[in-house]
Design goal:
With 198 residues, the chain is mostly helical. The chain is built from seven helices and no strands. α1 crosses α2, α5 packs across α7 and α6 packs across α7.
Length: 198
């Protein structure tokens, strides 16, 4: 099923856009972009708020040279990736200083819901290992269901570049997922009770 964006991506106008109108027309799109790029998060609402704060600040300088949807998507992408980068740095420092094991090691025995959440966490952990330009195309195509032409309009690249990045991104994602699966299996084996010698 194809998911279309509202308002349309080809909207390019020089008419003044009020803050209220911008918020009303693009709130659902920004929420979806944040969710797809960043994955399931407790601070999703905070990031959406930050996107609009930055958009409102920059709105007086918007002159319609770019499509409004593209302009707002770039702001959203920047906010999400900055937050992800900050969190990766904080997690690294925390483990380094406090010698904390990965959170996944403390998970209870998996149920169907826990397995689903764990699979989602692994997917986004793998996506974090992929360069931004590939991850963006992957999430918009595979998770948001956009067509190549829609992604090209949103990211301001050619349709051919979309397919090239999608092909490369899929290969990188598969490699990252295989690496994470190996590490998860290794940790599980390492933490399993050892047999006693007679």
């Amino acid at each position: 099923m194809t998911v279309t964006l509202t308002p349309p991506l080809d909207q390019c106008t020089t008419e003044p856009m009020s803050k209220g109108r911008l918020y009303d027309e693009y709130l659902e799109a920004v929420e979806r972009w944040v969710r797809r790029i960043g994955g399931p998060r407790d601070d999703e609402e905070d990031m959406v708020h930050e996107v609009f704060v930055q958009a409102f600040h920059q709105l007086p300088r918007f002159r319609g040279e770019a499509k409004l949807g593209t302009w707002l998507f770039v702001i959203t992408e920047r906010v999400v990736y900055r937050r992800l980068k900050k969190e990766r740095r904080r997690r690294f420092v925390s483990r380094l200083l406090l010698h904390e094991p990965p959170i996944a090691e403390h998970l209870p025995a998996p149920s169907a819901e826990l397995e689903r959440k764990e699979d989602t966490a692994i997917l986004y952990a793998a996506l974090e290992r992929i360069p931004q330009k590939y991850r963006t195309v992957l999430t918009l195509y595979e998770l948001d269901g956009l067509r190549g032409e829609e992604i090209a309009a949103l990211t301001e690249i050619t349709v051919a570049a979309v397919w090239a990045r999608l092909h490369r991104g899929r290969a990188l994602l598969e490699k990252a997922l295989n690496g994470l699966a190996f590490k998860t299996q290794f940790r599980a084996q390492s933490s399993a009770p050892k047999g006693t010698k007679s």
